[in-house]
Write a structure and sequence with these properties.
Layout: E1 15-19, E2 23-30, E3 42-49, H1 51-61, E4 66-69, E5 71-73, H2 76-87, E6 96-98, E7 104-110, E8 116-122, H3 124-129, H4 132-136, H5 139-143, E9 145-151, H6 156-168, E10 172-176, E11 195-196, H7 200-207, H8 214-226, E12 231-235, E13 241-244, E14 249-252, H9 265-279, H10 283-298, H11 310-316
Parallel strand pairs: 1-4, 1-9, 2-7, 5-6, 9-10, 10-11, 11-12
Antiparallel strand pairs: 2-3, 7-8, 12-13, 13-14
Helix pairs in contact: 1-9, 7-8, 9-10, 10-11
């Protein structure tokens, strides 16, 4: 018997509030072996990115009302992010535009097999600008929110404030741990979480359970539930995903697909599960929708699948 999740107790005209990173992603794909100190022929692609931004776009494309609260610089990259987000239907009316800061950016170099050789990220604007004071000035966003979704590109003080305000307004919180080095930031807040969705490496960094297969992944998910999270999901790449609640747990295999680009797949999974929670889908179905969203994203070059819809998720989903 699969657990049926009750739809969120939402107010009239409510929205999903996403707080997190929005930036510019630059990737260089080498066309021949990379030699240190020399220019390598290949292809370079520039796109909008950021975990919070990606989750917000996925939710907007699924038809949900989304308010995104990122920090961007007063520069061309920031304006590009704002324009693209508005075109997708994301409410960007509360974005923090920071004069004197550069918009977040990520630079990656990949070899001929698309393996990451090195990367550099410049995301300090999020930690510097999304402060407790900035959150308190926007408490109205929580008052009218049905759910808050966070990534880990925030300082602990800002996270503490967000969870405090969310508790005051009785708003549920879902999180994406983002990277292994940032994932532990959510550890003190596990009892306040409706859902957390790390990958295997992030999961190990956060709770110390080494994940090598779906069985150990399930142990890691159950460990988070024992520490207070209502729902824990662990993504395992080609092995699929595992999930646990206080009443059920399971493993959902990955959907086979031709991988075009890995970027954004985990963000799409998180967004699809959040969508399902928002609408009261059964837990098993929510996780399968997440797996479907990840597969659709892996199969396209964009960070978010531009043709994403609930119909496409069900067409792709393995029953």
């Amino acid at each position: 018997m699969h657990e049926k999740l009750e739809p969120m107790d939402c107010k009239q005209s409510s929205h999903i509030l996403v707080i997190g990173a929005a930036g510019i992603d630059t990737k260089g794909h080498a066309g021949e072996p990379i030699r240190t100190g020399m220019s390598t022929p290949g292809a370079i692609r520039v796109s909008v990115d950021g975990v919070g931004r990606d989750i917000a776009e996925n939710l907007a494309r699924l038809g949900e009302p989304v308010v995104l609260l990122p920090a961007v610089g007063d520069d061309g990259s920031g304006r590009r992010i704002l324009g693209q987000a508005r075109e997708c239907g994301i409410d960007m009316g509360h974005v923090l535009v920071a004069t004197g800061h550069c918009t977040a950016a990520y630079l990656a170099v990949l070899d001929q097999a698309d393996n990451l050789v090195m990367s550099i990220d410049d995301t300090g604007v999020n930690e510097d600008v999304i402060t407790p004071g900035a959150i308190y000035k926007r408490v109205g966003l929580f008052q009218h929110a049905c759910m808050v979704v966070l990534d880990a590109n925030l300082k602990t003080a800002a996270l503490r404030t967000i969870f405090k305000v969310a508790r005051n307004y009785r708003v549920t919180v879902c999180v994406d741990p983002t990277t292994p080095n940032l994932a532990p930031r959510f550890s003190p807040f596990l009892p306040d979480l409706t859902m957390i969705a790390p990958n295997a490496v992030e999961g190990e960094a956060q709770c110390g359970v080494r994940v090598t297969d779906w069985e150990s992944g399930l142990v890691a998910a159950q460990r988070r539930v024992s520490l207070g999270a209502q729902i824990a999901i662990v993504t395992l790449g080609v092995t699929g995903i595992v999930y646990a609640t206080s009443r059920e747990s399971g493993h959902v295999p990955a959907i086979e697909c031709d991988i075009v680009d890995l970027t954004g797949a985990c963000d799409a999974l998180t967004a699809a599960v959040v969508f399902a929670l928002f609408n009261g889908f059964p837990m098993d179905e929510a996780v399968r929708l997440g797996t479907s969203a990840a597969a659709l994203t892996l199969h396209c070059r964009e960070t978010v699948c531009p043709t994403l819809s609930l119909e496409r998720l069900y067409d792709q989903m393995v029953i």
